[in-house]
Design a protein that fits this description.
Largest sheet: 6 strands, parallel
Order of helices and strands: EHHHHHEEEHEHEHEHEHEHHEHEHEHEHH
Number of strands: 13
Active site: 338-339
Shape: globular
CATH architecture of the largest domain: 3-Layer(aba) Sandwich
Low-confidence stretches: none
Helix content: 40-55%
Cofactor: Zn(2+)
CATH class of the largest domain: Alpha Beta
Strand content: 15-25%
Structural class: alpha/beta
CATH superfamily of the largest domain: Nitrogenase molybdenum iron protein domain
Bound molecules: nicotinamide-adenine-dinucleotide, L-histidinol, zinc ion
Protein name: Histidinol dehydrogenase
Organism: Spirochaeta lutea
Radius of gyration: 25 Å
Mean pLDDT: 96
Keywords: Metal-binding, Oxidoreductase, Zinc
């Protein structure tokens, strides 16, 4: 069998089209499924639960006519009781770190400032009334995503939290997800995934309550559905297929360095064929050594992940060779990766050159997986170049701010004439008259 050859792209010799393919990555796949996703959404809108059960049978190979779409309390009790204690302990450890990290994001209930004597203005944070959290389960189960979403939602004070996640073939929901949901205090869990789940959360069905906002990562079907429904729900950040860049330089020159870099490159690549994983470097020797070492590690990965890795490293993955440090940083900023690991001589200096990345891990001791699960920072991150304008999920995603204003007589008198002048200039007589002819209070 022909062995895999890892592509090495020399940035300065690539055509605009080749650069654009690397920079676009799976965004193209998402566009391609939009039409089929649109018809799923329309069908769920028309036929509700019946359509959901049909799509679940077709895409998840799960039929459970005797189970309700909502997971019962008894099922959650059972999952909590029977979950392997080692998994429960690992979940508890990770959830504690995630809580510590997000606790610091909880805003003050009200924050008022005196703009001028007698003019007070500020903001009050109020939670969004209802949110849906999408927990993927196509190519792996994701209890980690459940706690990354539900912990900040709870800390924000969201009163109605619904979780959707695809069922296994027997209709059951991943037990570690149920354990995490119970620990966090969320009891509304629906066994439905894919585009049909997003549509159900947007429109509501007899079994599923509608939500104002839907957050959570997912496959291209989920990402496409959120985009198509952006007029009905707030779809939050675009969190599609996982992607990573590892930035390393000539300081990484021992065999251990090469092995570590290769292992790290495989982390996010194993999510699926639609993932992307790139080494960006300005060192030709490092590029060559990584290209030589990766294939054996890929061969040594169990299926189905091996096949995903092979597809990634003949698709949206590989090695990009830049001319120097500045060009390496420029490529990364153009790509705006979801995850970035900096393993250069001085990561703290290198990070100063980076503007766009969902998450930035400095040095050799912070592999992507550590942040995926347990450091505490949120691992639901913008993909597809959206890290240029979006951030990781946080408590802020679950609240909105009301501007609150209070003025004394003195404050009012201070600004009155200026407002009249500006309203007259803009041609709004009623805006102006309300102050000019205002009876003294
Ligand atoms: N950006 C982030 O923060 C982040 C975090 C975790 C995971 N991810 C990504 O989320 C994704 C999870 O994907 P997944 O597949 O594991 O789970 P998923 O739950 O998102 O997708 C599986 C669902 O897709 C639907 N589906 C499957 N084939 C279909 C078809 N042909 N037509 C219509 N619908 C279909 C099914 O309903 C199924 O339930 C991965 O790409 C992973 O990289 C991203
Ligand atoms: N890499 C994902 C975010 O892109 C998070 C994750 C959870 N489990 C494994 N990985
Ligand atoms: Zn991951």
């Amino acid at each position: 069998m022909k062995s895999l050859s890892i592509p090495v792209f020399t940035w300065n010799t690539l055509s605009q089209e080749e650069k654009s393919t690397l920079l676009t990555r799976s965004e193209e796949d998402i566009r391609e499924v939009q039409d089929s996703v649109r018809s799923i959404i329309e069908d769920v809108k028309q036929r509700g639960d019946e359509a959901i059960r049909e799509y679940t049978a077709r895409f998840d190979k799960a039929e459970f006519p005797h189970k309700p779409l909502q997971v019962t309390e008894d099922e959650i009790d059972e999952a909590v009781r029977t979950l392997d204690p080692k998994i429960a302990r690992a979940l508890d450890y990770a959830m504690e770190n995630v809580t510590r990290f997000h606790q610091a994001q909880v805003p003050a209930a009200m924050d008022m400032h005196q703009i001028r004597p007698g003019i007070w203005a500020g903001e009050r944070a109020t939670p969004i009334d209802s949110v849906g959290l999408y927990i993927p389960r196509g190519r792996g189960s994701f209890p980690s995503m459940l706690y990354m979403l539900a912990i900040p939602a709870k800390l924000a004070g969201v009163p109605n939290i619904s979780i959707v996640t695809p069922p296994g073939p027997d209709g059951t929901v991943d037990p570690a997800c149920l354990y995490a949901a119970r620990s966090i205090g969320v009891s509304t869990v629906y066994r439905v995934g894919g585009a049909q789940a997003i549509a159900a959360l947007a429109f509501g069905t007899p079994s599923i309550r509608p939500c104002l906002k839907v957050l959570g990562p997912g496959s291209m079907y989920v990402t496409a559905a959120k985009r198509l429904l952006s007029g009905t729900i707030d779809p939050g950040l675009p969190a599609g297929p996982s992607e990573s860049i590892l930035w390393a330089d000539a300081s990484q020159n021992t065999q251990d360095d090469i092995t570590r870099i290769c292992l790290d490159l495989l982390i996010e690549a194993e999510h699926g064929a639609d993932s992307s994983a790139l080494l960006v470097t300005d060192d030709q020797t490092l590029a060559r050594r990584v290209a030589e070492t990766l294939p054996a590690l890929i061969e040594n990965t169990p299926e189905p992940r091996r096949e995903f890795l092979k597809k990634v490293f003949s698709g949206y993955g590989g090695i990009i060779l830049g001319q120097n440090e500045a060009q390496a940083a420029d490529i990364i900023n153009q790509f705006a990766p979801e995850h970035l690991s900096i393993q250069t001589r001085e990561p703290v200096d290198s990070v100063a050159l980076i503007k766009n990345a969902g998450e930035i891990l400095l040095g050799p001791f912070a592999p992507f997986s550590a942040a995926n699960y347990a450091i505490g920072a949120n691992a639901v991150l913008p993909t597809g170049g959206y890290a240029k304008t979006w951030s990781a999920v946080s408590v802020r995603d679950f609240i909105k701010y009301n501007s609150i204003i209070q003025m004394t007589r003195r404050g009012y008198q201070d600004l009155r004439d200026h407002v009249i002048t500006l309203a007259d200039y803009e041609g709004f007589p009623s805006h102006s008259r309300a102050l000019k002819d205002r009876p003294e209070a």
